[in-house]
Amino acid sequence: MKIGELANRSGLTPSRIRFYERIGLLKAVDRKANGYRSYPAEAVTILGLIALAQGAGFSLDEIRALLPADLEHWEHDALAGALTRKVADIETLQARLARSKAHLLHVIDEIEARPDDIDCATNARRVLTRLLGEDAEMPVASLRAKQF
Amino acid sequence: MKIGELANRSGLTPSRIRFYERIGLLKAVDRKANGYRSYPAEAVTILGLIALAQGAGFSLDEIRALLPADLEHWEHDALAGALTRKVADIETLQARLARSKAHLLHVIDEIEARPDDIDCATNARRVLTRLLGEDAEMPVASLRAKQF
DNA sequence: CCTGACATTCAAGTTAACTTTAAGGTCAAG
DNA sequence: CTTGACCTTAAAGTTAACTTGAATGTCAGG
After folding, report:
1. Of A106, A131, B29, B41, which is most buried with the most CB atoms under 10 A?
2. Last residue of a domain, which of B49, B66, B83?
3. Which ranges carry the HTH merR-type domain (chains A, B) (predicted)?
4. pLDDT tens across A75-97, in order?
């Protein structure tokens, strides 16, 4: 199978597949006489797995550390541990998101529920004072460091 | 107030504050005779708001579009709309995370609950087959495009 | 007067995960 | 024999949000 067909079957682009090879996530495959890469059918499965793991929040580095050379020879304990830790990561993120959401809803409430008898500027001051006095959270965005 | 003091009070670094000015998130402030930036007390509030918004998942671009020149003159409707949309974004992410988590737990189950009478390789094939046959999700990581 | 803690600017580096571009081979079909 | 769809490589570009580095200026204290 040439790289274009593999790309079609796996849903990844050729450039992405070559990139994975370059960074050592995929081992270099055989070449035909003309230099074209020639993939075994198994490659579709491997790429599918990579995409799946990415979808679950694993970074390419993490995936590289877990993907066995032989698809039937997983490092059971490392894999189970990584999966469990990833679940914990997700739970952390869920908790953080819940707090962000609650916070946002609270702010929406504050700005919508302005008493009729005070003007916008006064209300703005009131909202601002409350907002900055409350909890200062860690940025949700900082989670990108952990692949979310 | 010089930039160092503002940095201390706001918890941001001086380089970050200069960066915000460079990209137009903060308007340029007055300079002392020696060229040093001189900030009004209000700047602490503004930086606090920026950090707060970032914590809630807003990108700097979004924040720039929402932050009024005058802190007491918010564009009420734009702000309320943006907050509401951000809550919706968070809900989308929550749903996605829930699915990822369920998926991971399912995989952990599959690899742990291997029947005693089949070997690792066979189990690996069984797990792989199920895994790749199921749903292929969008990567959680793709949410970074929306600031999470 | 010197030292050290500040301040300034501009350019370049960082991270992840790719894509894009450029310049060029290969090959089946018409 | 030429077109067009593929394939190859290496290098550079992308995005967000900063940081780091280099070269230099300012200023209060001892």
Report:
1. A131
2. B66
3. 1-69
4. 899 999 999 999 999 999 999 99
